[in-house]
Design a protein that fits this description.
The longest helix has 30 residues. Helix content is 75%, strand content 0%. The protein is an all-alpha fold and 496 residues long. Helix 13 packs antiparallel against helix 19. It starts with 6 loop residues before the first helix and ends in a 17-residue tail after the last helix.
Length: 496
């Protein structure tokens, strides 16, 4: 391909002046902020009322983790397909589709009467997980001719994530205050109203741009990864039912590893893979994707255990903070403030620490330290605030930086799949962690309704230790990335 034939150079010649482009970007980011407000409401709204949802559905605390695991698995399956479609048909169209599906799941939850029906609705709602990667891909595309693509993308991501975290506070405080005075079905309908409104924000506020890539969808690859994840979760369910010594459970997990291997080999040979494993295994990409996977363990898998532990009555169980839903909302609000600070200050910390990679390594260490402190300090409210605050600073920076880092290391026609897979790998990590934590927090290893419903304290210690260890391993993974991986550079360099 000659220089005159390159799409990014043609767009650069036709691009508006820099100040006009920046103004247009600000408008787009403004509309995308509203989308992230809805995402934040979804992510914060349910956390303070998990015990009340469990009571509403007549299930145990440990079973709540299966909602999270189911949603995360469905989300992980949606991301490769939706990210690929974004590169093919345009990111706005796919953002609209995922928002419509999320609205459907949200309305479903409002009227689901049983564990199974609620599980289905919760899983469908997980389509929102692709919103942030698609939004960052939109910003990355919009800044292509600016000469500061990676810098503007990181700044845009920081604004989006900061807005997301502030909206989490709104969602958490709202549900915590309303749960004691509002019917549960009506309470669960409020997020559905918000998501439905955001659909029209996207429809009328975001410009439609054609996709950069060509080709089709690798349905065989999607079927293989679906089967692999389904078999893996089946193995974890058997371990939950029969205990850690279950031969059937471990055999099923071994089968899932074999299916994952077959999927990887198939994708390597496919000209248009659903998951570009060559890209994801490149020196600049795999540390980012592995970090996202490990980060998913604490940031997604660790949230429900924190909520149930905080509401546990120490007089009855010998552990817990004895907090009510309203106070849980306050705890979550203070935690999320630190996430917002971590996201908003990412450009500053990047400059102070001398680069994106160093900022990400420090962020991972903060997450690891925050969860590590839970092991000795878990009996007082102020200890919980300190622990969550430290972890929150690191988590906010990681949520903002990982998709932008993946986009920086990808060719322009692969930004959707690169940014999407940071959420995909994070989601898979969270789903596996949620299932494992459900096992750890089951007192008897049985789903029998007559069995003991109280989670063991050792299970919570296991959760915090795993979350901490995963974050420190993520820091080590980032140290393996090339120094130039996250730096600003010409768009075409990723292709060479």
């Amino acid at each position: 391909m000659t220089g005159s034939d390159r799409p990014d150079q043609r767009e650069a010649m036709q691009a508006p002046p820099t100040h006009t482009a920046a103004k247009g970007l600000a408008t787009i980011v403004g509309f995308l902020v509203l989308v992230e407000v809805a995402s934040g409401v979804l992510q914060g709204y349910y956390t303070p009322i998990y015990p009340q949802i469990a009571e509403h559905l007549a299930i145990s605390e440990g079973d709540i983790n299966w909602f999270e695991a189911a949603q995360l698995i469905v989300s992980a399956l949606c991301i490769p397909l939706l990210a690929r479609l974004g590169d093919l048909v345009g990111h706005k169209r796919v953002l609209l589709i995922s928002t419509a599906v999320t609205a459907l799941g949200s309305w479903w939850l409002a009227f689901a009467p049983t564990f199974t029906t609620f599980l289905v609705g919760w899983a469908i709602q997980g389509a929102y997980v692709v919103w942030l990667p698609l939004e960052i891909a939109i910003i990355h595309r919009r800044t292509r001719s600016s000469g500061r693509q990676e810098l503007l993308t990181r700044r845009g991501a920081a604004v989006l994530v900061g807005s997301l975290e502030l909206a989490v506070i709104i969602g958490a405080v709202s549900s915590g205050l309303l749960v004691e005075t509002m019917d549960m079905n009506l309470l669960l309908a409020l997020p559905a109203v918000v998501v439905t409104a955001v659909f029209f924000v996207i429809l009328f506020g975001i410009e439609q741009v054609p996709g950069d890539d060509t080709g089709g969808v690798d349905w065989t690859g999607l079927a293989l990864v679906t089967a692999a994840l389904g078999v893996l979760m089946g193995g974890l369910v058997w371990l939950r039912l029969d205990g850690a010594g279950s031969l059937l459970g471990w055999s099923t997990i071994a089968v899932s590893v074999a299916v994952f291997t077959a999927f990887w080999r198939f994708e390597l040979a496919h000209p248009e893979p659903i998951v570009d494993v060559r890209l994801l295994s490149s020196p600049a990409q795999w540390p980012v994707q592995l970090t996202a996977f490990l980060f998913g363990i604490p940031v997604l898998g660790g949230q429900i255990p924190l909520s149930t532990y905080a509401q546990a009555d120490p007089a009855e169980r010998g552990y817990g903070l004895g907090a009510d839903p309203a106070f849980i909302s306050t705890l979550i609000g203070l935690y999320v403030v630190t996430l917002a600070i971590g996201a908003f200050t990412l450009p500053l910390t990047t400059r102070l620490l001398g680069g994106v990679r160093r900022a990400l390594v420090v962020a991972c260490c903060l997450v690891g330290l925050g969860y590590l402190l839970w092991l000795p300090f878990n009996s007082e409210t102020w200890q919980a605030l300190v622990n969550m605050g430290i972890a929150g600073l690191g988590s906010g920076a990681l949520v903002a930086a990982l998709p932008a880092a993946a986009a920086a290391a990808a060719p322009p026609e692969r930004t959707g799949i690169a940014t999407g897979m940071t959420n995909g790998t994070k989601t898979v990590g969270g789903a596996i962690a949620s299932a494992i934590f459900a096992i750890a927090l089951t007192a008897t290893g049985s789903l029998d309704a007559t069995s003991e419903q109280v989670a063991p304290f050792n299970g919570y210690l296991t959760v915090w230790a795993v979350c901490s260890g995963a974050a420190f391993l993520a820091a080590l993974a980032l140290l393996a990335a090339p120094r130039h991986a996250f730096s600003d550079r010409p768009t075409t360099s990723a292709m060479h």
